[in-house]
Design brief:
This protein has 261 residues and is of the alpha/beta class. The chain has two domains: 175 residues, Rossmann fold; 66 residues, no CATH class. Helix content is 42%, strand content 23%. The strands form two sheets. It has a six-stranded mixed sheet with strand order 6-7-8-3-9-10, with helices on both faces. A four-stranded antiparallel sheet has the order 2-1-4-5, with helices on one face. Helix 3 packs parallel to helix 5 and helix 4 packs across helix 5. The relative contact order is 0.15. The mean pLDDT is 89.
């Protein structure tokens, strides 16, 4: 579905991303993780079109999209959320999402269809669809849901989720993680998820790519990555035991439900 090959970004003499390569299969949830300054956000922005690659390739369904502007990337079928939601404060919830549907879709749609897609997206993230609810008082969790709804209203094939757990309490984190899994199941959307909260992320993702100093240092199943010596050294540190325990619990749960670990 999405292929990144040799992706590199230099800012003057500083190389923020260096020869990063990975693939994301259709319907997969891939976790893109690493310590602060590892190049996660830069990689995200290169895929989404916010930044232009210095070198390398970004291919979506076989088509080269590296260097396209963000609106064209969105219309091609890749939507993103932002770590800090910035909704239109004077517009209602439904209007915020309808704008995303109207301008972000890769096809011409009318007002009624935009509103219909907005209602559908709001219902999927469990926000009011009445057309009168404002963003006032939504709180961190509600704003994250609104951010998701705006991305989903563009009808993407791939969703780039940027730190969907930031600012949430433990219960809200679990709900947000479950919501991404629910979106994948209900819509078959492929998800690339950048996140710092490792324990929660590992409950949901199918695979992980770990970055450090702009380079890939590990890639694979959650249980493999969580036990990787270099990942523990540069990223997990004292949290390694907790993360590994959560990954092991997930594996036991899947095995008990008839799945594979």
């Amino acid at each position: 579905m999405l292929s990144v090959d040799g992706l590199t970004k230099r800012f003057g003499g500083f190389t923020a991303v260096n020869q990063v390569s990975f693939e994301v299969g259709e319907g997969e949830i891939l976790g893109l993780i690493g310590p602060n300054g590892s190049g996660k956000s830069t990689t995200f922005n290169l895929i989404a079109g916010t930044l232009t690659p210095t070198a390398g390739s970004v291919r979506f369904q076989g088509r080269e999209i590296g260097g396209l502007k963000p609106n064209l990337v969105c219309r091609a079928g890749i939507a993103r959320t932002f770590q800090i939601p910035r909704p239109f404060t004077r517009l209602k919830l439904l209007e915020n999402v309808a704008l995303a549907a109207y301008y972000g879709a890769g096809e011409r749609i009318g007002r009624s269809e935009a509103w219909s897609r907005a209602e559908d997206a709001l219902a999927l993230v469990q926000l009011p669809v009445d057309g009168e609810t404002t963003i006032d008082g939504l709180g961190a969790a509600g704003l994250k849901k609104l951010e998701l709804a705006r991305a989903l209203a563009t009808r993407p094939r791939v969703l780039l989720a940027d730190e969907s757990l930031g600012g949430l309490d433990e219960s809200e984190m679990d709900q947000a993680a479950d919501m991404l899994e629910h979106i994948r199941r209900q819509r078959g959307i492929t998800i690339v998820w950048v996140e710092h909260i490792m324990g929660v992320l590992m409950r949901v993702v199918d695979r992980c790519v770990v970055l450090d100093h702009g380079e890939v240092i590990a890639e694979g199943l959650p249980q493999v990555v969580a036990s990787d010596r270099k990942v523990v050294e540069v990223y997990l540190g004292g949290d390694a035991g907790e993360v590994q325990a959560q990954v092991a619990a997930r594996a036991r749960s899947e095995t008990g439900a008839g799945g594979t670990s």
